[in-house]
Design goal:
Length: 442
């Protein structure tokens, strides 16, 4: 059996210091979301455009690490190895054949316990309640395992069914790709695992990589079981993996690929033990960095969500204003708005947003999405942004812009400076040099 001391050392599992208490910061983040972002989100039905509802459980949840990849490449074995679950009754079942048919969520708990999917979805305190929308067939394929492990005090692991290219998605009995997208949208780190025998890319894996678009910074590719190969063959397999993935990852720099063997058995003799160990430690350091940056990533995620909500509200407002301008006493409202939705560029909908607001053209959503959106939500259901104001509550647009430009960057800056987030900052009190904006995308 392999020595595990590097896992404890890199992930600092042997340290006895108490876990940092982030309750005050998370409560402040929840308050910003509920008072400054959610009113505009609900008023303009943003959830029906993006299908991404943020719950309190999601705001306060631990970082999520998602394991994806073809069947029998070692995803479950890797989780067993990291948590030391081998030869316990709660180890994830592994084998050469496709074994994992469920989405398995490993969480921290006071004792070993299994939780059914229907129970996880019914518990609003957890971050998994939105999964109920995928139906009861899926909830039967969702399982939670609570393990009293120190690593799970700081992170949650999600094991997924292996991708099987010769099986139609419909045969799973639930929308597999939609479920994967839900976990991808919420994952802080995504491990895509391959092994030397499964490097080909089929339709289902290609679809998965399309879903990962925009999340390249969170993706880590793992070439597992590397100690089964001689040096020359390993180099060929490494090149073949890049060849297969090149059309699927549209980034200027190559993705980070970790080459090792993630299981408890010792490395095979006459292989590159030192290289594999260094690669494993590098991956563990990546995992530890995600844990350490938990709050920064959470605040950045909420800020990114707020930016998208603001852009959506500005677009709906522009559609509505154009509709009101084109309507006359004798106009057919349905035909007028159909003309606007079919060809928004004719009415300068998107160009006006770019010209009059601080919006990047790269952040604008797809025009086609608004055909479906307004097909479900008539334009008459919405109010202009100028009418979304009250004497006591202020204007929705001003509040979300204040959250994006001041409150969330200020909360992020207070973390870096070790301040109490509830205390006044130097921007307001003039107590010296203003703190730098520490917002950065991980």
């Amino acid at each position: 059996m392999r020595d595990r001391s590097h896992i404890e050392k890199t992930l600092m599992l042997n340290e006895d210091k108490p876990a940092d208490d982030y309750t005050a910061v998370l409560q402040r983040l929840r308050k910003i979301y509920h008072t400054s972002i959610k009113p505009l989100e609900q008023s303009y039905k943003y959830n029906e455009l993006r299908q991404h509802e943020i719950t309190d459980g999601e705001i306060t949840s631990k970082p999520m690490v998602l394991f994806l990849g073809p069947w029998s490449v070692g995803k479950s074995t890797m989780i067993n190895y990291l948590l030391g679950l081998e030869d316990t009754r709660y180890q994830l079942y592994t084998g050469a054949e496709p074994t994992t048919s469920e989405f398995t969520v490993l969480m921290h708990g006071p004792k070993l316990k299994t939780i059914e999917g229907i129970v996880m979805a019914a518990d609003s305190a957890r971050s998994f309640s939105p999964l109920e929308k995928f139906g009861q067939n899926f909830l039967e394929k969702l399982i939670g395992i609570e393990v009293p492990h120190k690593l799970l005090e700081r992170v949650t692991f999600v094991d997924t069914p292996g991708i099987i290219e010769n099986r139609k998605q419909q045969e799973r009995g639930y929308p597999f790709n939609d479920v994967c997208q839900w976990f991808i949208d919420r994952a802080d780190l995504i491990f895509v695992v391959f092994d030397p025998t499964k490097l080909d890319v089929g339709l289902e894996l290609e679809t998965l990589f399309r879903q990962l678009k925009g999340r390249e910074s969170q993706i880590r590719i793992i070439l597992n079981k590397a100690d089964n190969l001689a040096t020359q063959m390993l180099m060929r397999v490494y090149g073949a993996l890049f060849w297969s993935l090149a059309p699927l990852i549209n980034v200027t720099e190559p993705p980070r690929v970790y080459v090792s063997s993630f299981w408890p058995q010792d490395y095979k003799p006459d292989t590159h033990r030192e290289l594999f160990l260094k690669e494993e430690i590098s991956l563990l350091e990546d995992l530890n960095q995600v844990i350490e940056n938990r709050l920064e990533n959470k605040i950045a995620f909420i800020r990114q969500h707020a930016i998208r909500v603001r852009i959506h509200a500005l677009l709906v407002d522009r559609y509505l204003q154009t509709y009101k301008d084109k309507m006359t006493f004798f106009s057919d409202g349905e035909l007028v708005f159909k003309d606007i939705v079919e060809d928004p560029d004719k009415f300068y909908i998107f160009k006006t947003i770019l010209a009059k607001t601080n919006v990047s053209k790269f952040d604008l959503p797809n025009r086609e999405a608004y055909k479906d959106f307004f097909g479900i939500n008539p334009i008459s259901n919405f109010k202009l942004l100028s009418q979304q104001c009250s004497y006591m509550g202020g204007c929705f647009l001003e509040k979300i812009e204040r959250a994006i430009t001041q409150e969330l960057p200020g909360l992020l800056g207070s973390l870096g400076l070790g301040k109490n987030p509830g205390a006044p900052n130097c921007d307001k009190t003039g107590c010296g040099e203003a703190p730098k904006n520490r917002y950065r995308k991980h």
